[in-house]
Amino acid sequence: MIDRSNALAVFEKLYGPGDVRLFFAPGRVNLIGEHIDYNGGFVFPAALELGNYVFVRVRDDDVVNLAADDLPGTLVSCRLGQLETKRGREWGAYQFGVLDEISKLGIELRGMDMLFSSTLPFGAGLSSSASIEVVTAFAALEIAGAKLSMTEIALLAQRAENNFVGVNCGIMDQFACANGKEGCGMLLDCAAVRCEQIPLNLSGYTIVVGNTNKKRGLADSKYNERRAECEKGLERIRTKRPELKNLCQLTEEDLPEYEELIGDETVFRRVSHVVSENARVIESVLLLRKGDIEGFGKLLNASHLSLRDLYEVTGRELDAMTECARAFPGCVGSRMTGAGFGGCTVSIVENSAVDGFIKAVSAEYESKTGLRGDLYPSNAAGGPKEIF
Ligand code: GLA
To answer: Roughly what angle, to the nearest 10 degrees, separates helices 150-159 and 128-144?
Structure first.
């Protein structure tokens, strides 16, 4: 939880005294289904208790001011009619991009003073950007007295990130931040943008998120490279199956038939990851429904190995932390989560082993990599809300 009185003091120092409203949107952890959303398959994320808070006051004019309590001295401003000028990757572009997308829907926004405060580690693969986008949209719409569904909010936030910020992400993160439900994972069909809330009956087990503290340096360029490789694979397969809309419409049994047609060994490995990972998501939900947590854990392990060997998006730190995790008795499965190349892991650990797990994995990870690892138990939490 943030220190509200401190944040309010910062708000008043910046914008003066008066009424303030507070909104929240969570971050997310993807349990399984990595690099699947832009290939039209199923993913299985859950919202976190950690997320982004925004303190907001309505203004009488059309100016939007943005500040963050962990970026002292940064105050960016824009008039609602000039949002376009804020395109780019600077801090503030995510929020202005979202406001721009809302305006394009014909919704009349109000001028606002905003102060952001986060409990999510930034750039660690827990969707800090999507969480900022969603909390901005949610707060701005509430203040404007306009209603959009959570799925519409997710879609406009994704458009903002794709078009305004210029990051070519899929729909998973924004959707997960907008649609979280306490105690549930979201089985999201990314082609239809529809989800089923699946109760996470992890009786006896806990989700542990682990931050490798390795920043995702190459993430953007490598992410786009993987997307292009998947598109190439799809294009090749379409020469024989023109009706195919996305790679996730293929099954694992189909794969050998297309190896030669794809013709490129790297692209074939990327396609193999996508098709097998999509199958693992469906199987995960079947196992969870049966209460087979150990079976679910094995799929997490298989997912990591596929991301390491076939999709090649893990790296030394993610491999080290998940190896330490898997070796610990009481951990039934561990994998990287998010785009990869650094960021976070997710592990499923027996309740009674959690404390020992965190101590042992932190120590061993640090001795292997020289980096401190931050591991913490996490619950599947709810979506955006107004706090006061
Ligand atoms: C990032 C993107 C998502 C998704 C994941 C990989 O988090 O924002 O859209 O593609 O990577 O699963």
So the answer is: 120
pLDDT digits (tens, 9 = 90+) for 163-194: 999 999 999 999 999 999 999 999 999 999 99
Ligand 1 pocket residues where CB is under 6 Å: 34-35, 37-38, 169-170, 172-173, 338-339
> Is beta strand 112-118 parallel, antiparallel or unpaired with respect to 75-79?
unpaired
Separation of CA 39 and ligand 1 centre (Å): 11
Distance from C-alpha of 353 to C-alpha of 349, rounded to nearest angstrom: 7
> 272 in helix, strand or coil?
helix
> Which class for 122: exposed (0-12), middle (13-18), buried (19 or more C-beta within 10 A)?
exposed
- The residue whose CB lies within 8 Å of the most ligand 1 atoms, and thus the one to mutate among 28, 31, 35, is 35
Rg (CA), the chain: 21
Q: Which residues of the chain have pLDDT under 70?
A: 217-219
Ligand 1 mean position, distance from CA 190 (Å): 12
Q: What is the average pLDDT value for the chain, to the nearest integer?
A: 96
Angle of CA points 369, 373, 379, to nearest 5°: 145
Closest residue by CA, ligand 1 atom 2: 169
Residue nearest to atom 1 of ligand 1 (CA): 339
Q: How far, in Å, from the CA of 187 to the mean position of ligand 1?
A: 15
Q: How many helices (H) and strands (E) does the chain have?
A: 11, 12
pTM score:
0.97
Three-state helix/strand/coil letters over 52-106: EEEEEEECCCCEEEEEECCCCCCEEEEEHHHHHHHCCCCCCHHHHHHHHHHHHCC
Pick the closest to residue 132 from 111, 153, 109, 112 (CA basis): 153
